[in-house]
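Fold in tokens:
===
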Amino acid sequence: MSLIIAGTVRVPPENLDRFRPHMLAMMTASRAEDGCEAYGYAIDVADPGLVHVFETWRDQAAIDAHFATGHMAEWRAAWPQFGVSDRRITVYEIASQRTL
């Protein structure tokens, strides 16, 4: 069963340019992990301080391994210096899927 992680975090808009290389590094490292099917961030067009998060993973074991990586620890440690806040992330268990 695949899992989707989706949600948002907030970053003060004035910090986004400095935060972008950290987002790119996290995306690159995460996409290379076994079990990662998709991983991305998107800045909201109407609310530049809102960052959308979207990930798909093969299974819970892949997510557990992801949370134990060094790049995840570095990622979370960087949040305070950029003002990351209001984290609203949800995990969805997907029983089936189809192309729309």
User: Anything to note?
Assistant: The longest helix spans residues 16-31. Strands lie at 2-10, 36-43, 50-57, 85-94.
